[in-house]
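seq:
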Amino acid sequence: MSKNRHKRKVSHILIYTTDAVDADMKQVRIHPWVLAGVTLIVCCVLGAVIGYAVYEGELWGRIREHDASQNAALIAAQDEKDALQEKIDEQDAKIEMLSITIQDQTQQIADLQAQIAEQSVPTDYPLTGSASMTVITDGDPMVEFTATEGSTVVAAGKGVVTAVEEDEVYGNRIVIDHGNGYVSIYRNKGESQVKAGDEVASGTTLFMVTEDNRQLGYQIKENDVYIDPTTIIAIKG
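struct:
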């Protein structure tokens, strides 16, 4: 047996034909290195396709995870926004309620101030009983009342007694400052029931009317100017 053997040559033959009736069979001899090259190429292509598929799957997985994280963050941000908006709405409601309360209190204060100012204006009748009245226009305007015995001379409005002094014609005089530009003056022969510095309300007794002091001289000043008392006095009965 010879030691040197010849290597077998392996070759591959590709036989193909067509569907035609008169078609002949054809064969193509394929060398082994060509087949190995084609196999290598096919394997590389399959590996690339499989690798791309795996990579694409991981990429889409990451994208889905990122989208889920973004959605969760957006939901949390929306929830926080809704909570803040709810607090803002609550604060707005409280502010509106406070504003209404302030407006109501402001109106109440204004009404009270108007009421106090009205009480301070000497518009009330300066006697508790009926009386005859004479308007004196000679000199400073004045109304002279002749009161009934047993009635009283009273303050025509809220104020402070600024003077209790003698009067040349009527005997005594009481001056009340009402604090808003109005001053009322009461002239009568009776004994004063108040003293300087006293705070008086409308209806406070100033003189007791008897048979000897039925005449009351009544005057009003507005901003240091004498005015006709009948323009603001409320005469009843």
